[in-house]
Design goal:
Blueprint lengths: L2 H4 L3 H7 L19 H14 L13 H13 L2 H17 L21
Pfam families: DUF4096
Organism: Leptospira santarosai
InterPro entries: IS402-like_dom (IPR025161), Transposase_6_like (IPR052909)
């Protein structure tokens, strides 16, 4: 149902996977964690759609799982590393035109404190 969002291309995953923290085994057992690739797909789905964490489809694990891993990875600086890695890869492959840029108005403070 969410095929456009749920598949991380292998070429992209090969760049992302080494940057993610390794999962620690649970000495006392318990359920296995949702696979990292599925959780990352859930996080990407949430970022693309803007939905609430709890509205993430169950094929990505629970929204709570995705949110918890997002927080873990954010604290560990994973997304900054992913961004830099993908940017470098894309620049080598496609030669980014650094003379052109686009900025979302939500990122720029209104000069007179607009609403």
């Amino acid at each position: 149902m969410y095929k456009n969002y749920s598949e991380i291309p292998n070429e992209l995953w090969e760049k992302i996977a080494p940057l993610l923290p390794k999962e620690k085994p649970k000495p006392q057992g318990g359920r296995n964690r949702v696979p990292t690739r599925i959780v990352m797909a859930g996080i990407i789905y949430r970022m693309k759609t803007g939905c609430q964490w709890r509205a993430i489809p169950h094929e990505f694990g629970s929204g709570q799982t995705c949110h918890r891993r997002f927080q873990e990875w954010e604290r560990a600086g994973v997304f900054n590393k992913i961004y830099k890695s993908i940017l470098k890869y894309y620049n080598v492959k496609n030669k980014i035109s650094w003379t052109w840029a686009s900025m979302d108005s939500a990122m720029v403070k209104a000069p007179k404190g607009g609403a």
